[in-house]
Amino acid sequence: MSNIRISTQLFCLVFGLIAAFSIVQFVQNRATSESLRQERYDLLTSQTQSAISILQYYYDLAQAGEMPEEEARAEAYKTISNIRFEPDGYFFGFDKDTTMILHANPSTVGKNFKGAADKRGYPFADEMMTKAADGGGITVYHWPKLGSPEDVVFPKASYNAKFAPWDIVLGTGVYTDDLNAQIWANQMQSITAGIIVLILGLVAAYFLIRGITNPLAKVHSAMQAIVEENTDVEVPHTEMQNEVGMMARATQVFKEKVIERQQLTKAKVEQDALLNSERENNTNATKAEAARQANVVKTIGAALAQLADGDLSTRCSALGGEYETLRQNFNNAMEKLEVAMSNIHQKGSDLDATFSAISHSSSEMSTRTESQAANLEETSAALTELTESVSSAAADAKNVANRVDEVSTDAARSNEVVDKAISAMSSIEQSSAEISKVISVIDEIAFQTNLLALNAGVEAARAGEAGLGFAVVAQEVRELAQRSAAAAKEIKGQIQQSTSQVNQGVGLVGQAGEALKRIAEQINEANQLVAKISVSATEQSTTLHAISESVNEIDYGTQRNAAMAEELTATAGGLAQDTSELMSMIQQFKLTEKREELRMAS
Predict the structure, then answer these.
(1) Around 550, how many Cα atoms within 13 Å sit in the side-chain half-sphere?
(2) What positions does the domain Methyl-accepting transducer occupy (predicted)?
(3) Letter string b/e over residues 6-25, b meaning 16 or more CB atoms within 10 A of that residue's CB
């Protein structure tokens, strides 16, 4: 499931729910159809039992001697043959040889139906006799209606029961084409409703899923652009209060971190440029100083060239700037040159060796200082990036801790909702039990009304022609009582089924509540761990920030030392060269005899 797109998962969920709804609708329609059929069959059973009670009444009269048995039979057959009920209901009867002895159509009386079959070849008469002998039952066959052509048949259901004292089978039937039409209409209505619900569900799912996936796609595009260092992109949907808004706001925080990192990188580049500029200025100053020194050397060289010819009265011209003192000192030195020449010649060799050692040491120190400065600069950059990463991780850990705390609160609220749902379902279950008691009372009232109507029909039959109207009223009352009993029975079955489903729902909601409690405990543990991580990351960020500042200060000082070492090396080299030239020049001087004696003596 983790590799399936969210839109596909949501479509599958909606389709599954609609399919479940269709299955439930189908089962409910099937149960309703069976209930309608059973109601019709119960009507046939009740009517047949009522007719048998009339036969029993006339049989009791014959047995009591109030009228001859043949006359009692004739009256009973006549009474039952004249009874009609809706829809299209009448009575018929067979003797033990399957000969019709009573029927609403007098032309059918006297015919033998043994082995008779309907238009489709079903032996309905023998089936009626068999089921009547077994205590009564329903027979379904096809038969034409009264007044309709013989070749036009309709489905018909008949209930047959045996009246043992006269050894006859009495039955009644109703045509079920209207019932089948009603069932078919109900099924078509359910199918149409299912299709409409399916279409509406898919359309609603499409817009719902589109409302989820489109913001996610836009946030993903913005995040991808930010990853590619494009901080000009606007992060959409940060105003939403759902999970998409949370993701968008986290992306906005990520964008701000990237901008901050870019600014730090830019500042580092500017700092490097400043250091390079300062290093270049130092180099230029060194070159300028070397040029001035070359000018001094050139001037002094010219004076020394005159000295090479033995003219100790030569003097240096103006050198300018800080070298003016050198000119004065040179002129003064020329006066004392003869005295100092011997000592300078003696110390010149030692001075040359010393300058060479200083130049070598200064060069090595400059090289090591530059290498150390480069390494320290790389360390400072890496430490700065590490500090930024730890700061970002600390902020993200704090945000995660806040989100986990919110999820923990929502889980606790979900537990309260589940407890309320369990309480509500328990109340529904108690209400269903009370309704079942009321329906039981209605069922008993319908049964008693049926018995009273039956007794009224018997009394009306005893009254003869004068009681026919009362018999019709009693029959209508019995039909209403039977319908009430059937409806109460159906409602009771539906309530029992609902009670079972409510019990299952209570169990499922209880399991969901236990699962939510476990999830809440795990979220609390995760919240504590994330809080510890957030505190630790904050402390690390503070420590690394302090270390980074210290390293930056050391790096700056090392860069200055490297520049000074380069200056020292250049200066030492120039002095070594001047000393060498000076020694060559000194060796060319010729002293007077007095100065030579002094030099040799020294």
Answers:
(1) 6
(2) 347-576
(3) ebeebeeebeeebeeebeeb
Mean pLDDT by 10 residues, the chain (602 residues): 67 76 77 80 88 92 90 91 80 91 87 87 89 89 76 86 92 81 80 82 80 80 82 82 82 86 87 86 79 74 72 70 73 69 60 62 67 69 69 68 67 67 69 70 72 73 72 74 74 73 69 67 68 68 69 68 68 67 63 52 54
Distance CA 70, CA 589 (A): 184
- Helix count and strand count (H, E) for the chain: 8, 5
CA distances from 63 to 69, 72, 101, 287, 455 (A): 8, 10, 21, 153, 20
How far is Cα 478 from Cα 46, in angstroms, rounded to an integer? 9
Give me 269's structure tokens.
């580049």
All residues at 6 or more sequence positions from 334 whose CB lies less than 8 Å from its CB, including other chains: 303, 307, 312, 313, 314, 315
- Positive or negative, the Cα torsion across 441, 446, 450, 455? positive
Among 369, 273, 374, CA closest to 567: 369
Helices (H), 172-313: 177-227, 243-308
Beta bridge pairs of residue 91: 172
Query: Token pair 């209400």 is at which residue?
Result: 431
List CB contacts of 549: < 8 A, sequence separation 6 or more: none
Residue of 132, 140, 143, 142 whose CA lies nearest to 158 = 140
Q: Which residue ranges form the domains of the chain, and what is each CATH number?
A: 6-207 (3.30.450.20), 214-264 (1.10.8.500), 372-588 (1.10.287.950)
pLDDT of residue 54: 92
- CA dist 243 and 265 (Å) reads 33
Q: What is the pTM of this model?
A: 0.35
Cis omega (within 30 of 0) on the bond before 165? Answer: no
> What is the C-alpha to C-alpha distance for residues 207 and 449, in angstroms, rounded to an integer?
57
